[in-house]
């Protein structure tokens, strides 16, 4: 305390007391930025080695260097580093926004071209290369059915698995299951597709199909189930852990057996969270292309039966149209991509809003 | 997501502990107290399917539970959940078994060395195919994508957790999460139809001024190259690494941060001394998970790479192929051996991603234990 009060006083005769270190004025940063842009434009256009993109890139580098030097002179090395890193972190963020904006803009501008009633009411059956019409009705049917069947398979399995991990599992075995659920999250979707190809299409389905491999929407559902299962188990597990222990204990105290406590008390309490997790998993599965490509077989006609014959899906439709040589195909691909993204994002946003409302409600 | 397990894990595990002892005590009390009860309860229990009739007999309490029935229903339910849990292990083992079963015939028919041969001709009368070029392409694109994505992702994660105002940080974090939900086929389409142009211009520019560096050499055509694939891949793994790292950075103990600031550290010094060391295992785990995702990415790469199976370090010339992209592209015209060959390559991919994922999870798990014991 005494040193604090005496130090400025002691320094007073020589020079003005400094309680604050010198700071770089706000305008200086702006000045450096302007100077960097001007200098880089002069350099690039003067030597003729590039265009606007290079001007921006060089200006950022010059700005960072200039900021560091100026700050180093005025404020010292530590502040200079602080400022440079802060600028780098901010620019990383701007850099990441660029693709996001670009994808959104391309998607909307190119996708709106074919997004009409005809697109949602027709399939690609009998659509030739010179036909500008054609739609994604069959693909939308396929996506909805495949994801629906996959959800029917996965939700009971996933919820039961999560119940085992949280309520019953003990020791090494439960830990192993939990660990491999996490590992399973990282299985590439194409491997899930190959698995169902090897297991269902090439080994099981020939039994029902006169010895020929039978591609079907159901096979795609199986592959999607493999991908959805770990997501659903993980989110359900998190939600079950959030259920307060006193609720369980109260139920046990009333003499209710454990299985009934879980089904009547624990699950209903965790239900909104579980629904959120299921919706996120569904959104992810709806966008998968690779497994559907391998096992559903594609197809241009409307097929309402997921258990027999080829089916398409929206994601697969995008991929097939993108590879099509017809000059009308890209517009169809973009319209389908826009539809798919809208579907996925609506599901995701709804799920996140549901989760958020819950958290605040509790 | 990250902060729930440590606190509530105890709550969850505490529940079952209470029950097991409860069930045992209830059963014991029953058998000792009223020997005639089971027979007396039998119709009641049969109607109500299990021990819930016990609630009707308030004074009787847990002792009134018909022992065998309640135990039976619980047993069945427990067995059911355990079977569901075991399914996870069964599926992983089944994936390995069925892939091997279908890959072996094709590998036996292969007349070239599977691990070193660079081409992919499994549909010929004497099938020749090898994973060499594909595995090389997979590793090259993934590593390049990570090199591009990780610094940016860490920057964004730090921005969201420590620089942005709270409200904006939440909103932008939400936006980044949405980016993760966009299907890969959309990124593939975007990369092929839009991003191709700028990348081709960049490649031409790099080739003009830096062709003395081998990776920027060659004389075209440019565009559908490793560079385009890696950039698209980088954009796709960015949200994953960002959201995991942000969670980790956000969990840094406030005491550590405040201590650093109180000692006079600047904001960057605080981040470097308090936030980054704390988050390092989490960041490594997130990077490994991103690597796993990048290795397995299929459709986006099938649409943006030049699909040429050779080993070349040139990243801007048309070319490049990966295991997963090759499966998607070659599946259409594959015959029986061709399908087996693709399954064999899928088996390699499965093994690599399994190793990467197990390592990543092990790192994350170790960190979780560490933070739990510290808390």
Automatic annotation (TrEMBL), chain A:
Subcellular location: Cell membrane
InterPro entries given in the database record: MetI-like, MetI-like_sf, Phosphate_PstA, Phosphate_transprt_permease
Membrane association type: Multi-pass membrane protein
Occurrences of domain ABC transmembrane type-1 (ranges): 140-351
UniProt keyword list: Cell membrane, Membrane, Phosphate transport, Transmembrane, Transmembrane helix, Transport
Regions that span the bilayer: 24-45, 51-73, 85-108, 147-167, 179-203, 215-233, 265-286, 333-355
PANTHER family to which the protein is assigned, alphabetical: PHOSPHATE TRANSPORT SYSTEM PERMEASE PROTEIN PSTA (PTHR42922)
Primary role: Part of the binding-protein-dependent transport system for phosphate; probably responsible for the translocation of the substrate across the membrane.
Family recorded in the similarity comment: Belongs to the binding-protein-dependent transport system permease family. CysTW subfamily.
Stated name of the protein: Phosphate transport system permease protein PstA
Designated gene of the protein: pstA
From TrEMBL, chain B:
Phylogenetic lineage: Bacteria, Bacillati, Actinomycetota, Actinomycetes, Micromonosporales
Compartments where located: Cell membrane
Family: Belongs to the binding-protein-dependent transport system permease family. CysTW subfamily.
Pfam family, one: BPD_transp_1
Name of protein: Phosphate transport system permease protein
Residue span(s) of domain ABC transmembrane type-1: 135-360
Membrane topology, record value: Multi-pass membrane protein
Annotated TM spans: 76-101, 129-160, 172-190, 226-244, 298-316, 341-360
Keywords for the protein's UniProt record, in alphabetical order: Cell membrane, Membrane, Phosphate transport, Transmembrane, Transmembrane helix, Transport
PANTHER family: PHOSPHATE TRANSPORT SYSTEM PERMEASE PROTEIN PST, PHOSPHATE TRANSPORT SYSTEM PERMEASE PROTEIN PSTC
Organism field: Plantactinospora alkalitolerans
Ranges of Gly residues composition bias in the record: 45-64
Gene: pstC
Chief site of localization: membrane
UniProt region (Disordered), positions on chain: 1-20, 33-65
Gene3D superfamilies reported for this sequence: MetI-like (1.10.3720.10)
């Amino acid at each position: 305390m005494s040193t604090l009060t005496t130090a400025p006083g002691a320094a007073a005769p020589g020079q003005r007391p400094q309680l604050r270190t010198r700071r770089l004025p706000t305008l200086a940063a702006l000045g450096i930025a302007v100077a960097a842009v001007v200098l880089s434009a002069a350099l690039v256009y003067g030597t003729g080695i590039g265009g606007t993109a290079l001007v921006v890139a060089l200006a950022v580098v010059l700005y960072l260097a200039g900021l560091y030097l100026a700050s180093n002179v005025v404020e010292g090395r530590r502040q200079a580093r602080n400022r440079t890193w802060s600028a780098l972190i901010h620019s990383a963020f701007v850099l990441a926004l660029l693709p996001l904006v670009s994808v959104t803009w391309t998607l909307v501008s190119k996708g709106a071209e074919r997004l009409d009633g005809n697109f949602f009411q027709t399939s690609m059956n009998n659509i030739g290369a010179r036909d500008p019409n054609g739609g994604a009705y069959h693909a939308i049917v396929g996506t909805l059915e495949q994801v629906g069947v996959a959800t029917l398979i996965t939700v009971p399995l996933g919820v039961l698995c999560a119940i085992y991990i949280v309520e019953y599992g003990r020791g090494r075995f439960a830990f192993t299951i939990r660990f491999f659920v996490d590992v399973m999250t990282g299985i590439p979707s194409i491997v899930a597709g190959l698995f169902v190809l090897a297991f269902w299409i090439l080994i099981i389905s020939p039994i029902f199909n006169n010895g020929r491999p039978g591609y079907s929407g159901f096979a795609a559902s199986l592959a999607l189930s493999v991908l959805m299962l770990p997501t659903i188990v993980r989110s359900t597990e998190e939600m079950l852990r959030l259920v307060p222990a006193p609720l369980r204990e109260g139920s046990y105290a009333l003499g209710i057996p454990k299985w009934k406590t879980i089904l009547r008390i624990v699950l209903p309490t965790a239900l909104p969270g579980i629904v959120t997790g299921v919706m996120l998993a569904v959104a992810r599965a709806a966008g998968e292309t690779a497994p559907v490509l391998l096992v559903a077989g594609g197809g241009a006609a409307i097929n309402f039966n997921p258990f027999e014959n080829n089916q398409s899906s929206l994601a697969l439709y995008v991929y097939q149209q993108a590879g099509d040589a017809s000059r009308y195909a890209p517009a169809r691909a973009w319209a389908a991509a826009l539809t798919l993204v809208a579907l996925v994002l609506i599901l995701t946003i709804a799920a996140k809003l549901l989760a958020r409302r819950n958290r605040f409600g509790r | 997501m990250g902060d729930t397990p440590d606190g509530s894990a105890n709550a969850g595990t505490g529940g079952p502990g209470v029950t097991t002892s409860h069930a045992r005590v209830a059963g014991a009390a029953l058998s000792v107290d009223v020997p005639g009860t089971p027979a007396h309860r039998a119709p009641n229990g049969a109607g109500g399917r299990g021990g819930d009739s016990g609630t009707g007999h308030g004074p009787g309490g847990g002792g009134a539970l018909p022992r065998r029935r309640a135990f039976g229903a619980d047993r069945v339910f427990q067995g059911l959940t355990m079977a569901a849990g075991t399914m996870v292990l069964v599926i992983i083992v089944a994936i390995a078994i069925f892939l091997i079963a279908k890959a072996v015939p094709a590998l036996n028919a292969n007349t070239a060395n599977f691990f070193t041969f660079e081409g992919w001709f499994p549909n010929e009368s004497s099938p020749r195919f090898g994973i060499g070029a594909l595995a090389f392409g997979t590793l090259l694109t993934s590593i390049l994508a990570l090199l591009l994505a990780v610094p940016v992702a860490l920057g964004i994660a730090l921005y969201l957790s420590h620089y942005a105002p709270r409200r904006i940080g939440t909103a932008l974090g939400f936006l980044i999460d949405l980016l993760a939900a966009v299907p890969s086929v959309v990124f593939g389409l975007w990369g092929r139809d839009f991003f191709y142009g700028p990348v081709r211009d960049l490649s031409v520019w790099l080739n003009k001024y830096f062709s003395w560096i081998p990776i920027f050499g060659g004389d075209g055509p440019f565009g559908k190259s490793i560079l385009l694939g890696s950039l698209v891949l980088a954009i796709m793994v960015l949200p994953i690494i960002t959201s995991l790292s942000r969670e980790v950075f956000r969990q840094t103990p406030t005491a550590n941060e405040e201590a650093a600031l109180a000692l006079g550290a600047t904001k960057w010094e605080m981040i470097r001394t308090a936030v980054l060391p704390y988050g390092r295992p989490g960041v490594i785990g997130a990077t490994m998970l991103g690597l796993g995702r990048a290795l397995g990415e299929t459709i986006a790469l099938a649409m943006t790479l030049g699909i040429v199976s050779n080993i070349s370090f040139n990243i801007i010339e048309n070319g490049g192929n990966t295991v997963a992209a090759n499966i998607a592209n070659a599946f259409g015209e594959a015959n029986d051996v061709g399908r087996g060959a693709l399954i064999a390559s899928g088996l390699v991919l499965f093994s690599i991603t399994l190793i990467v994922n197990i390592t990543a999870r092990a790192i994350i798990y170790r960190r979780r234990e560490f933070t739990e014991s510290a808390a």
